Amino acid sequence: MKGTYVFKQNGVEIGRAQNLITTAGEYQIAKSITLQNSQWAAAIAIGSGSTAANLTDKKLEFEFGRGDINSISYADVVYDDTTSHIRLFAKATLGENISGVIYEAGIFSSTIDIDEFQRPLFNCEPSEGWDYQNTDSSWAELSEKTSPYGYISGGYAGDQFVDFALFGAAGGSPTTTRKIRFFNTFDFSEVSSSDDFVFALKKSATGTCAMTVKFYTDESNYFTLPTQTPANNTNYQFIKVSKSLATQTGTSADWANINFIEVYNPDGLIKLDSARINKSVTSPQNVLVSRTVLSSPVTKVEGVPLEIEYYLDLF
How far is CA 308 from its chain centroid? Predict the structure, then answer.
């Protein structure tokens, strides 16, 4: 079997990539063909991960968008007027609200439970309403036009990063505390202790730096994840921290009632891109059929749908 992802915008192909069929995916396809379970293709997901595909993959490395399969068909394909085989077609459309650079893609069977994989928290976009803290402890809106603080382009999930290096004069003392907050209402009560919070980021320069993330019910009651130290390079990377490692401050801290998330990078080296929840996967019915890492990344533009077609050749 051989599979291919084709990316189309306004009907025009803008990229394609060969894939790896996972071991579980081969079994799922066989079961689907023999009518032993539900459809082999139910959704196509996109992500920022760059680790090479593996036969044992169960999810994308860092998913930031997903579209349901809206059509499945098959056809007889003839090569060189002599050799023919069956080709299965699956097609999904990513909505206008999704944006980012696609480095990986995967197709999932219809037995997938989306909540078993990834839940988005934020993409560090201006529309999310971030604030930053001044050195006098006051808070102000983090705006694209608030010089020298704000967002920079180049985000993988979404279009932008928050660059902590902008929160202070180069070579001098920071003019802010290098703390930012994202205000929204979250209920994390159903996130199990074995699930992970995952943060996608780059570094503006090599060197040791720290990142601390807190989840607040209010100013006196919150949960703190252990301080993390990203790898000493400027590559795009992922920080994964289990919910079970969080410590509680205040008796009224409540995972079911989180009102803002705070990220602190005192060293100012981090470019924060986005965050997700990775839920632990225990069910063998949750099948990633195939995964690809694109040699030439494809950009999903906000406001324009992106069609992804998947061709599966059965020899």
Answer: 18
